[in-house]
Specification:
The protein is an alpha+beta fold. It contains 5 helices and 5 strands; from the N terminus they run βββββααααα. It folds into 2 domains: 58 residues, no CATH class; 61 residues, 5' to 3' exonuclease, C-terminal subdomain (DNA polymerase, domain 1, Orthogonal Bundle). Helices cover 30% and strands 14% of the residues. The strands form 2 sheets. A 3-stranded antiparallel β-sheet has the order 1-2-5, with no helix packed on it. A two-stranded antiparallel ribbon has the order 3-4. A hairpin with a 7-residue loop joins strand 3 and strand 4. The longest helix is centred in the last third of the chain and has 14 residues.
Amino acid sequence: MKGICKDCKWWDYIDSENVDNTGGFGECKRNAPLPYHIPDSNVGISVKWPVTDDDDWCGEFEDKKQVLLYDTSIDVLRLGVRASNCLESANIRTLGQLKSIDDQKLRYIRSLGRVTLWEIRQKLADFGAKNEN
């Protein structure tokens, strides 16, 4: 997937309080920060993240919107009582957790039968968060 830096989950504006939506520079935090020499200091070496323009791109883009989706509560699906109770008993609280579990493992949850499983998968699809497995 090709996308620009400002839409990537690994990228942040350097000065997020002064963002004016006309462009700017930010730090890519996909990989470890790079060391650099500080002349005339007692420390000598420090580290910093690579700085890029907000409309640059790379091959390691991951959409910020998708990250937010993973942290979203399953309550947004408005599941029925049985489905909600089954997921709660299995300690599944976010869409990311739910999407990462395949159907066979979900069926091991007590009282979660094929109709309840169908309801969960249908609600996920309606919400636009299809299962990864």
